[in-house]
Amino acid sequence: MYKAINPSTGEALKEYPLHGAAEVEGFLEESFAAWQSWRGVQAEARARLLIRLAELLERDKNRLAQLMCDEMGKVLREGVSEAEKCAKVCRYYAENGAAFLEPRSIQTEAAKSYVAYRPLGPVFAVMPWNFPFWQVFRFGAPALMAGNTILLKHAENVPGCAEAITALVEEAGFPDGVMQNLRISHEQAAKVIADSRVRGVTLTGSTKAGRTVAETAARNLKKTVLELGGSDPYLILDDAPLAQTVEACVTSRLLNAGQSCIAAKRFIVTEKIYDAFTEAFTKAMQAKVMGDPRNESTDFGPQARHDLRDALHAQVQESIRKGAKVLLGCDVPPGAGAFYPASVLAEVKPGMPAFDEELFGPVAAVIRAKDTEQAVQLANQTSFGLGAAVFTADAAFGEKLAADALHAGSCFVNDFVRSDPRLPFGGIRESGYGRELSLWGIHEFVNVKTVYVK
After folding, report:
1. How many CB atoms lie within 10 A of CB 276?
2. How does pLDDT run across 8-22, given as a tens digit for each residue?
3. List of domains in the chain
């Protein structure tokens, strides 16, 4: 049973029964049959459907934002922005997908030789709750544009969001079976991955979940893309412009109540600016309003579930026990809802959960570095590699660090890390592999086929 529970109040909203084995078999058969025809639809026709889907997302953005608010506690204005971003990615692939899929001619001894891009088939997607629409459309728009079909297993706490997505795809005019919503258990998911009709698997979620899905997919020789956790370092160098830096760091740490894989997690500050940054940053974090995500005055809402809030608090308390200094928050507020306050831990060091693990909530870990060299070393002292940022008045030097010194899939200079349809997105090491978005995202689930004509 999938259960939607309002994390602001603890109120049970609705229960959704799991699909049985016969229903799952029907979904698989329908998805494979739909692919057989969808793969032959011209790119221009697929693009028109994506444009219509973008229009529907924009039309319904307020309703969808309310749904996200109810099921996982997202602040309404962030939900509206998420729906708009989904529309943007649909338009991006509608406008660029055909060019991305054009054959690439390569000169050889043949009369003609080229690389063609052809869809793989049904893609099984395991998606998370934190950005319940964006995560789906981030891979879904290019997958559909490429001619694949989608079997969606969404997070169990956002079943209404999953239903809304498939309803929008249907209303946009996509053929039956092109995108289907599977409410299934982990055991059922493993069987779906193993099914011969499924040709690819994508997961956004924890590193633990990624290992499990990758292992099952590997046993069955299925192509996978994994976007997993992160403990993103933000380097604050001696000459960083303080006001701009603090604003970007606070925005990144509290976006989506801190529940983002690419949120800033570890703030590594060089000695010269450490005290000034820590004071200004803590003050700015303290000024942010936690509360009902429906209110316009609220900056961030609750954590998505009580168990997630409690796990976060346990990490914080263990870090304090090991010597981290509390500058702000770090306590569980009384009352209903899975709320956790904006929190700042200082003097964080390796060996503490706040340094070694991902803190998936509004908790900032401030780390002291004696100089830039040590800051880079501490930034790379992690098992993750999703995003990183550098703040400095010397943009050219920051660019060199971003391009050459920091080990992550996305490295930003003087701004916070975020995804953009025009740029590839993904991580390395325990943050996963493969890329979404841009040219690289649409090529993940295609057959890169050599055609040679003598």
Report:
1. 14
2. 999 999 999 999 999
3. 2-228+428-453 (3.40.605.10), 232-413 (3.40.309.10)
